[in-house]
Structure formats: C-alpha cells, structure tokens
Amino acid sequence: MRIAIYAFTGITMFHLSVPQMVFDEVARQGLAPWETVLFSDDAGPITTAEGYQITGVSGPEAASGAEVVVVPSWYADGRPAAHPLRQLLVESHDRGASIAGLCLGTFPIADAGLLAGRRAVTHWQGFAQITQRHPDLEIDDSVLYIDHGDVITSAGTASALDACLHMVRTRLGAAAANQVARSLVIAPHRDGGQAQYIQRPLPEHYDDDPISRVLDWAVDHLEESLSVERLAAVAHMSVRTFIRTFRASTGATPASWVRMRRLDEARRALETTSLPIDQIAANCGFGSVVTLRQNFTAAFKTTPSEYRRRFEADDSLC
To answer: Which top-rank group of organisms is this from (predicted)?
Structure first.
C-alpha cells in the first residue's frame, strides 16, 4: 500500500513523523509492503517549524496513485486550504483512496467538502474556528478519532498515533496493530477523548461584579452544598435574577458551572495527590464515589481511576 503524506513549510517534525513512523513500521516488521512518500504543493525542500530543512519532498503527482492520502497537520492559524490541495483531496477520494486528517489536518479535509454533514474531530483549540467555517460539521470531543471508512479524522497531536494504529488494525488486523504498538512502545488502544484536556477557564473577574464574587466564593467552598438558592444569597440577588445574570455572565447555568468546577478540582487532585478517590469525592462536593464516577465519566469519557493511572504512568516515564 502506498501512503502519501502532505508536507508544508511550517509543519512540526512530530506531526510529520507520526504517520511515517507507524506506517513504515508495518514494513519494518514484515507485516505488509507498505511505503510512505512525502508530497507538497510543489516538489522541493520544506522547512519545519523547528527550522530543519527536509529534502526529497515530491510534488502533488506523488499522491496520484496512493491508496491513502494523509494531511498530518495544518497551519496554526487554520487558514483555508488552497484550491489545488482541495482538488487533490477530492480527486483522491473519488478514485477510492482513504483520506486522513490528523490533528488540525481536519481543516483542509473539511474545506474540501469531504466532511459535510458528518461527525469529525480535530485539536480542541480549533473547535470554534472549524465549526464557524463549516456549521454543518458535528465536532465530537469525546473520541480520539472518527473513522467513516473513506475519511478518518483525529484529535489533537498525539491522537494521530491512535488514528494511524487504527488504520493498521482495520487493514491488517489487531495482531498486526499490536505488534506495531509494541515495537513503538505505545498503547495499542486508548480510551477517552479530548474533553479531559480542554481548558475551561473562569471568566474575567471584576471586584465590583457580584457574579465574579460568587465564582470566587464557590471555588473556595466546593465541598459544601452549593444550591442555586445559596449562591443567589451570596450574590444578594433573587433566585430568578441570579440565574439570568449568571447565565449572561458565564454562558452556563449555576448547576453546570459548579459541576465543572468540581470536576476540575477532582482532576487536579487525581493528577497531583495520592488522596483516596472517596476523599476526593467528598472534598469536591460530590458526596460519594459513585456520584463522582458518574459525572467524571460523562464529562471526560474515562473513569477517575483510569485518569489517575494515566498520570501515574506518565510520571513513571520522567
């Protein structure tokens, strides 16, 4: 199988190397005669974001016979894809090639019209921009990749590894994917999505803003009962006025905002402390491990225990 990987000046070495590393490992392991080729808008060297010059990059004709065309990343500003690249992607798709947009590489795939009316995923920092440009696109933050058979997209950065391994698994089977994963010393399959990594900062605070004062107060009292009536009392507002003002200020209901602050604190505790999970549940105001687990899993598509193990594994590699 021939896999054509799009390269452009300014791409990071990591994004460019991931599909090459995974797909070339298939051949190195003797699993199948796969080969990768780098192509760009014009033949000639490109310069990576790190300042390295890469030679031997082919022109767009290198993608003409590829069974898979990969856009492994995209410009950080999310600029619209130029017509030649969009046309190449459409023509490749029309002749039966699989199209992969990894990380921000989802942008040119969407610009080519290959994701119209479909679910997709990209780096969470690009969610707002891509949905504004393509309102018919359904972005899903709960998964690491989405495979429609003809088009696959992946979430941010390292999720490209998961998507590429998935492509090995669907074409050569689980045993082959596991062998590639073992050789690269990565997990053959990871659960969860980007929701657990998306920053949800507090709105700007002003000393004379009663909602800001309530936000500060609530963060310091997460372990207590934080009913809307109590929060309204702290703000010295009626419940109805408080709910209306709170939503205008934060874009959320008081209950959903409190729940996310409790989940944020639970994440921090799981990452940085060895406290028992039942103690974390109490400290964050969930009351029980069951309630914490239900809310954590619904928000982040992984359990508190699995989340903690992931960070413990990361620390063991440092």
So the answer is: Bacteria
φ and ψ of 17, to 5 deg: -85, -25
Q: Could you report the per-residue pLDDT of 87-132, keeping only the tens digit for each?
A: 999 999 999 999 999 999 999 999 999 999 999 999 999 999 999 9
pTM value > 0.70: no
Residues 6+ apart with CB under 8 A from 106: 74, 115, 120, 121, 122, 126, 130, 153, 154
Three-state DSSP string of the chain:
CEEEEECCCCCCHHHHHHHHHHHHHHHHCCCCCCEEEEECCCCCCEECCCCCEECCCECHHHHCCCCEEEECCCCCCCCCCCHHHHHHHHHHHHCCCEEEECHHHHHHHHHCCCCCCCEECCCHHHHHHHHHHCCCCEECCCCCEEECCCEEEECCCCHHHHHHHHHHHHHHCHHHHHHHHHHHCCCCCCCCCHHHCCCCCCCCCCCCCHHHHHHHHHHCCCCCCCCHHHHHHHHCCCHHHHHHHHHHHHCCCHHHHHHHHHHHHHHHHHHHCCCCHHHHHHHCCCCCHHHHHHHHHHHHCCCHHHHHHHHHHHHHCC
Contacts of 199 (CB under 8 A, 6+ apart): none
Number of domains forming the structure of the chain: 2
CB atoms within 10 A of CB 272: 9
Task: Find the domain containing 261 and state its range.
Answer: 210-316
Q: Are 112 and 238 found together in one domain? A: no
Q: Which residues contact 61 (CB under 8 A, 6 or more apart)?
A: 39
